[in-house]
Amino acid sequence: MAVPVREAFQRKFEARHITSEVTTTSSSYVTIPDSDVIIDPSWFAQNGRLYLRFVAHLKSDVSGASTFARLYRQHAGTAVEGTEVSVATTEYQIADSGWIDIAGEAGLESYQVQMKTNASTGYCNSAIMLLSSVPI
Hints:
The chain has one helix at 5-13; strands at 22-24, 30-31, 37-39, 51-60, 67-73, 78-79, 85-87, 93-96, 100-101, 109-117, 122-132. By secondary structure, the chain is mainly β. Strand 5 (67-73) and strand 6 (78-79) form a beta hairpin. It is elongated, with a radius of gyration of 15 Å.
């Protein structure tokens, strides 16, 4: 059953989001606390189509070091393919995954933001998961 557009937007924007700067020194992915959004992607699909776009605001404290972020499915225990983004700068930059076809996703899942760095300290001060039935 398709969800009316107005209701879909309300559901999306009531979700939790990162509200303050988060850091990591881990070279393995770690989950950002309170970054989870529990949804059933089929709520947003229309005519069997659904696309996701992951955008994060990232930086590193050392020039040339990279900070990475991605979306992770907590219950399935897997990363959402195509969502890994990164920057290699000491100033905040927007990292964007572009539109990813996730029409095959179904059922309630807890999507979480994870991050890591390849050296020193990585920073993230915002991230968002956009859903659309067309890649705008």
